[in-house]
Amino acid sequence: MIPLYLINNFEMKHIIIYTLLLFSVAQCSNELVFEEESFQKTTSLPCKEDCPSISVKIPVANAVPIVADSINKKVFSVLKEIIYFGEKPYTAKDYNGLLHSFIGSYEKLQKDFPEDKFGWEADIQGSVKYQSDAVLNIEIKHYTYTGGAHGYQGLRSLLFDPSTGKSISNDELFNDKATFKAFAEKKFRAKYKIPANKSINATGLMFEKEKFQLPQNIFYTDKGLLLYYNSYEAASYADGPKELLLPYTEVNDYLAVK
Question: Deacetylase PdaC domain: from which residue to which, for each copy (predicted)?
Answer without folding.
Answer: 48-152
